[in-house]
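User: Sequence in, structure out. Go.
Assistant: Echoing your sequence, followed by the C-alpha cells.
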Amino acid sequence: MARKKSAKTAAVSAENTAAKNENTEKESEQSAVETVSKEDYDKLKEEFDSQKDQFLRMAAEYDNFRKRTEKEKLATFDNALATTVEAFLPVADNFALALASGTDSGEEFKKGIEMIEKQLDTAFEKLNVVKFGERGEPFDPLLHDAISRVDDDELGEDMIVSVYQKGYKIGDKIIRHAMVQVAN
C-alpha cells in the first residue's frame, strides 16, 4: 500500500513539475515577445506575409495542375475512343449504303443488313457516340460540311435536304462532320 501511495505521489509531483516548466516557458516567450522592437516586428511580419503569399500561390498552382491533369486524362480517353470509332465509320457507311441500294435484293438480305446496322448503332450508343445529320435539321457549320446548295420549296432556308454521310460525336468532340446538301 505504501508503494502505491508513493507512486501516486511521484506521478502527481511530476505533473506539477511539468506544469510549472510549461508556465515558465510561456512566461519566457512572453518576455521575449515584449523585448522585440517595432522594427524587428515589422520585418518579421513582412517576412511572414511573404511566406504566406508564396504558400497560397503554390497551393493554387497545385490545384490548377490537378484540374488540368484530370482534364487531360479525360481528353486522352475521348481521343482514343474517337480514333477507335473512326475506324468503324466506313463499315457503318457501307451498311447504310447497302440498305439504301438493296431494294431489289431479297428480303432476307435486307433484314440481315438492318440487323448489323442496329448492332453497330447499339455499340456506338454504349460508347456514348451520337449520330447526327438528318434531313430537315437546321444546318450548323460547326457540325455539318455543306457539299452543295439546292432550291427546295418543301424545306426552309439553311435546312438539310439530304445527307451523304452521317456525322458522329462523343460529348463535344466531333469525330466526323456530317456531309450534307443544304436548301437555299
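User: And one key feature?
Assistant: The chain has one domain: 45-183.
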